[in-house]
Amino acid sequence: MRWLFTLFGLISVAACDHNPNVTPVRDAVLKSGETVEATNSNGKVKISYVTAQKRRYEWNGRSRVITMIPREEPFDGKLGLYEPADSWGFVFWKERLVVQESVINFANLNEVDAFLRQTKDYMDWVYSSDGLVVGFGRTPARNQVNIDLWQLLLRGEKPKQLSGSKSDAIRISNQ
Question: In angstroms, how far is CA 74 from the centroid of its own chain?
C-alpha cells in the first residue's frame, strides 16, 4: 500500500511541475511554449521552455532536460537561471552541460560589444539584431558543453540593430 501512496505523490509532483500558473523566474528569456534555435561553428542547438525552471537542450544529436537554479541575487549583472553542471562523480564519460539564461541590461553599445568580445575565446555567439543571443561552445578538457541564452537590452529596451548580428542563424518560435 505504501508504494501506491508513493506513486500518487510522484504523479502529483509531476502534474504540479507543468502548472502554467507557476511564477516565472525574474529575467528569464524564454516564456511558456517558446523555443530558440541557433547554428554556429559548433553546430546546431535548440533550447525549449519546459517549465519556469526547466529547459530542454538539444545539440548535435543529444538532448537533456535541465532543472535550473533561479538567481536570487545578480551575478555579473545577471539574474535569470543557471546550472553549473552536475559533477562527474562516477560518470566521467558523460558530457557536462553548463547553461545560463538571462536578460541583461546595458547602458550603451560599447558595453554590449565588450560583453560579446570578452568571452569569444570559449564561446561562439550568434545573435539577432534585437539582441537575442545564443552561445554554444565546448571545453573538451572538461568534457563540457556550454550553452548560454541572453536577451540583451539597451537602456531597458531591445536594441534596434546590433552590428555583427546574424538573424538568419538564430530564431525564436512559439509552439
Answer: 16
**Tens digit of pLDDT for each residue in 49-104?**
999 999 999 998 999 999 999 999 988 889 999 999 865 555 555 788 999 999 99
For residues 15 and 85, give the distance between their C-alpha atoms in angstroms, rounded to a whole number.
Answer: 26
pLDDT of residue 121: 65
- Count other C-beta atoms under 10 Å from residue 23's C-beta: 7
Give the pLDDT score at 13: 39
**64 Cβ contact partners less than 8 Å away, ≥ 6 residues apart:** 56, 57, 97
Q: What is the pLDDT of residue 141?
A: 80
